[in-house]
Every structure is written in structure tokens, then in C-alpha cells.
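Incident log, structure service

09:12 report received: a user says their structure output differs between two submissions of the same chain.
09:20 pulled the input from the user's history:
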Amino acid sequence: MRFILFTILCLLNTCAFAQVKQATIRGKVVDEEERPLAGVNVTLLGRSAGIRTSDSGTFMIKVPADKALALVFSYTGYKTVQRNFLLSLNEEEQVTIKLEKGVTQLEEVTVTDQRQRREAGLVTLNPKQAINIPSPTGGIESLIKVIVGSNNELTSNYSVRGGSYDENLIYVNDFEVFRPYLVRNGQQEGLSFINPEMTRSVQFYNGGFQARYGDKLSSVLDVGYRKPRRFGGSAYVGLLEQGVHLEGTGAKNRFSYLVGARHRNNRNLLSSQETEGNYVPSAADFQGLFTWQFSEKWSVELLGNFSQTRFKFKPAFSQPSTSVFSPFFSANLGLDIYFDGQEEDQYKTNMLGLSIIQQARKNLRLKWMASRFQNKENESIDIAGAYLFGERQFDKNEADYGLIVNPLGAGVFQNYARNRLDISVLNFSHKGTYDKGRHYFLWGLSYEQQKVKDQLKEWEYQDSAGYSLPYNASEFFLFKSLESTADFTVNRLSGYVQDNISFGDSSGFALQAGLRFNYNDLNKEFLVSPRVGASWKPMKWKKDVIFKASAGIYQQPPFYREMRRYDGSVNYDLLAQKSWQVSAGLDYSFVAWNRVLRLTTEAYYKRMWDVVPYDIDNIRMRYYGENNAKAYATGIEARLFGEIVKDAESYVSLGFMRTREDITGDTYYNYTLDSLNRPVDSTLTENGWLRRPTDRLITVGLFFQDYLSTNKNFKVYLNTIYGTNLPYNIPNSVKYRNALVIDPYLRIDIGFSALLLDSDKSKRRSHNPFRNFENIWATLEVFNIIDRANTISYLLIKDYTNTVYAIPNRLTPRLLNLKLIARW
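09:34 re-ran on a clean worker, output below:
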């Protein structure tokens, strides 16, 4: 008993002595807009262990008393802050720490543990760079293309790890947004849904995404719009696009608004295309986010968008040149086409979403959502052309330079279309989160109704040397004819549960495990998709390295475009495309050249079945409408982020990939010909594994910023994308699938910016008309500075002997753009 009492007294004295020697520092960490920052590392200078701020940005740490010390606050994407203290016994200090954007930090400290570094496939982008990046389309998608590559500068579509354009999810403030479906090429495409001037955060998952995201095979783009704290705005005017946005608060900061309007006209961009004519493209949109904070526990958000795109085109003349694809003939060819007629398209989309958010308890957040998306598209084409093709004279010293000197054929064609598509999507969802220490639970349930009304009517007539193709001496055939209607409704039910588990800072291990389900009443298919992700940071290592991996099932229920076959009929029994995917990589933060840099690498493998094969013509997806293929994609990616130049963030991306598919029943007879080209024998051949339309071995992307060493007000932005060749399929040809190759894509855009008005308002007089402006920038952009003629697709010309000639469709040449940007 005496021993026990002695032990207790010793313990009490030790605790009392320890308490006497300590002081307390409490506080809150916020960003430049006074928003709390969660997960900020708070460490004592010279020590590796520390704490992290809570979801509300608060922290409390015990520190030694009567001793000079320093706390270091570090967070990825923000400048590291050091605060010095000297506290008395039992003293309590209250502080507020404001972190500024940037990646500069103290040499003694390296960033240790942030959520965005631990999630597999996650790339966090700075939305401000979307305004600076020189690109014909601009916007958030231009930043993503530097990461994943591109094949067309006229579209906001992108392909991720060998997937199609339709395999990408896009969310804005938790609402899923959609794109037009009938668009055939980038010339017709209007504005992206996402307005960069309204954007607060951009998180892009190029694979391995968690169960809380939806049912697609390739990627997730998760965008958050800002919640304004004060009045402000911006306006910009350029040769291609103009826009304005306003933001502010009211009702004692309980109400906030964020609205933006944009207009885009690509006439200057398209007027330099190979096909000469009268281009009248126009796109405009208006969107707004309105927030009401009724109390500390209840708030409401209303997100609305209206967008309209018109495209009118009267072609006149085209003069492309190329080499020929034919099993029997090879030459340098030219094609002269004289057009008549026009194309007139219209795409209207509108979306309205309402969110009711309840902060039921400090650690429990509930969200109820309702949204309606509507898409109406009209496509009207009636274009005829007369053409002459043959060998073209390329010798500039000859009098007939540029002319066709050895005609191989002539003909006429007519393209006709009257297509109408009306899609509406009604969605009701519930989402919730519950923070229970080491466990962070997420769940969701969603009901969605999709209505599709479609009227498809299009045909193509081709005549070569007086013969209608396909040639038949006794009967007339159109080269292509499609006519169908569809009117159906799909009801979908989906949901997820997920647990993000932290095993403590000492272990450095974290786990995300979740399960999704999806059911629709069209094909009655019930899908279950388990997904897991893990990360580990060796706490005893001096180097700041995080290892991460993911594995899971990813399944994509069919939507309308996958269901429509080549002949226009709709396959209502089409099953979901399915895959299992694994990935593993690391995130390494280090100091080089007195700069903090971040290197991420990731290897992945995707195995797919019940695949719906497709072809890409420009940006138009043409699906087989059948689950008749299996496929795989494998590769490795590496990215380097950081301030290569001080205070100017840049990044470079490198990827290697292979993706193949094996289509069931892709057999054909291979004929042996005699000296007179007559078939004498045949063998049945199966294609086996072939390159998918998105198979690109190497992809390189670079976004680089710099400024004059003597004046930071003059900046330069470089945007470079390179990708090796792609396969191109002859439509409806089994034997000549993968027959053509699209040459490597190389694009270099550059922009120069000059600050016309800085943010120092003290030097402005009271009557100055610009006294309330934050800054004004002028920008000169040079698109495709090397003037490379990139190919996007091929125009296939046949003569009456069925010889196929491939004429490339080229993308935009070099072009200048001027832009003026003002913010207040």
C-alpha cells in the first residue's frame, strides 16, 4: 500500500511539474479572404511532429514556458509563416494567422502532410492560371490539357488515360454538369460551363477517384465557386472573348452573390482555316451563385446557368493536300473543292440547382440538393461540293505551282442533316459528412430521371466520275443514310458510403474505403463498385515523401450517345462498360535552386470489359452501340510543380501510355490477287488486339511563367503540348481499322502581359476614374507560334473502283489575340 501511494504521489508531482512548465497558444488560420484553412501544419521550429488545424481552421498547442520559441505554419500552395513567442508560466496567447498564396517556405521546414497530396490521382490546380494560360479556348480545361494532353485546341474536351470524352465527370459546387452531344467539331463548340473568374478551387482526378464521386471510367473535375466576402468584380475584352463578373454581400454579410456573363466569337480564329467561307460562330452564357446564411446552422445556395451557342457556316472553297491511303496506289495528292449551301446549328443549355446545407453539429454536415438540366440542340446541314483531286504541283518554280497537274478523279457530294435532340435531367440528392476523430464518414443518395427525345435524319450522297457510290449498275444507293427517332425515360438510383481513416500522425498511414451502387430501370442492371485508396508517409524519413495507391471497380452505365448504333438505331439493352483499376505512386516535396518543388509519379493499369467500341471524327463520337469488346490501358505519369522562377508557379507533365481493344467478331477475308488484280484465294483473318482511337504513347505538357528580372510587371506565359501519333479508323471497315495514322500533335502558345495599373491606390487622385480598380492588365497572345499544321481527322474520297484517298483536315495556324483585363 505504501508503495502504491508513493507511486501515485510521484506521478501527481510529475504532472504538476510538467503543467507548471507549459504555456498555451490558441488561434485560427485563415487565407487571404479570411476563410478558415483546415489541415494546416503547426509545428515547433526544429521539431518534426506537430498538429493540424481543425475543419474550422482553429488550433491549440502546448509549448514550453519562459523560453523563446517559434511556431511554423505550412500548407501546400501557401507561403509558410513563422511566428516567434516568449510566454510566461500558464500564459495563454490568442493569435490569428493569415496565409498568402504561393509556395515559398522556410528552408528549415518541409511540407509534411496535406490531404490533396495523399489522394491517388488528385491534381490540385490554381484557377488563377486559367486566366493567364495562352490557349484559343482558355478556361480550366486548358490547364487540364497540360496534364493529360490534347489533340484539338478548338474544344474543351479532353481524353484521360485512354478514355473517351464521355468518360469524364464534371462537378460545380457538387452539381454534375453536362456538355452538348451533337457537336461534330471544335468549330461548333461554344463556351465551357466553368467560368474561371468565378472559380475558387479546382481538383482534378485523372484516375483512382473515391466512391463519393460518380459512375464514369476515367476522370473527375471537381470545381468550387467562390463565396464572396466583399464587393468586387472583373471585366475583360479580347478579340475572341469578352466577359464581366460581379460579386458582393448584403444583409449584414448573410447574403452573397456571384454572377458572370461571357460572350465568345471565334470568327477570327476560324477565318484562317483551310476551308474558306463565311463563319458566323457565337456563344454566350450567364450564370450566378447566390447564397443565404439564415443562421449558424442553416444556409441555402442557388446555382443557375443559361448558355446558347449558334454556328452558321457558308463554305466556299478548300484546297488541302496530302499523301494517299490505298492498298494499290501511292502519290502526293491535292484536292480542290468548291462548295454551295450552308450549315446552321444551335445549342441551348440551362441548369438550375438548389442546395440546402445544415451544420447539424460541429462534426456533422448535411446537404440536400435538387437540380434540373436541359439541353436542346438543332443541327441543320445542306452542303454540296464539286471536287477535283489528283497530283498537285509543289515546285514553286513551275508556272502551275499549286494546281492539280495529273487529275485522278472528279465528283460531287452532298451532306444533308436535320437533327433534333432534347435531353432533360432531373436530380434529387442527399450528401452528408460526419467527423469522428480518426474516422471521417461520407455518404450520399441520389435519384435521377433522364428524358431523351431525338430525331435523327441525315444522308450523304457521293458521285465519282459519274458513278453514285457505292456503285451498283442496276440500283441507286446513297453513300450513307440514317433516319431514326427515340423517345424514352431512364430512372437511376445511386449512392455511396465511405470512411476516410487516419491512423494517427505517428504512423503516417491513411485509408479511404468506400462502396458505390447504381441501378437504372432501362436495362435493369444493378452495379456495385468497391473502391479503396491508401497513403503512407514515413514519419522518420528526413525527406518529405508520401506513397499512395488505389484500387477499385469503375462502371459506367450507358447514356444516349453510347446507345445509338452506327445505323441510328438505339440499343435499349446496352450494359454498362466495366473496369477494374489499380494505381500506385508517390508525392515528393523537396528544395532545389532555393525553390520548393513537388514531384508526383503514378503508374496505373485498367482492365475493361463490356466495352462499347467507338470512332472519333474530329470531336464527334460514333459508337457501335454494342458491348462487343474488351480493352486495357496501362501507363506511367510524372509531374513537376513549383516556382521554377521565384513567385511564378509553373508545371510540367510527362506521360507514357498504351491502350488496346479486342472487338468480338472483327474478322474479314484477306484476298490474294493475281497479276491482273483479280482475287484467286482468300483466308479468314481476325484483327485481334488493336490500338484504341485515343492510344498515344507519349504526352508532354508544359505551363511556364516568367517575368523581367528588372520589372515583375511584364510577364510571359508559355503553354506547350506534344503528343505522339494516334490511329485513325476507316468508318465501318473491319479490315482497315487502324489503317491511318494522325501525325504527332505539337502546339506552342505564348502570351505576354503588362501591368497598366497596379494595386497601390494611395497614388491615385480622388477624381481619377480608375481610383477603385485593383489592377489592369494588357495581354498579347500568339497561338500556334510555330505555325504547325496539326491534323485532327481525314476526309475520305473514293473513286468508282473503290480506291480510298485520305485528305487531312487541319487545325488552326498561327494567330494573334489581344486582351484587356481589369479588376476592382
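09:41 both user submissions now match this output. Likely a transient worker issue. Closing.
09:42 reviewer note: Residues 1-20, 103-113, 323-330 have pLDDT under 50 and may be disordered. The two ends are 76 Å apart (CA to CA).
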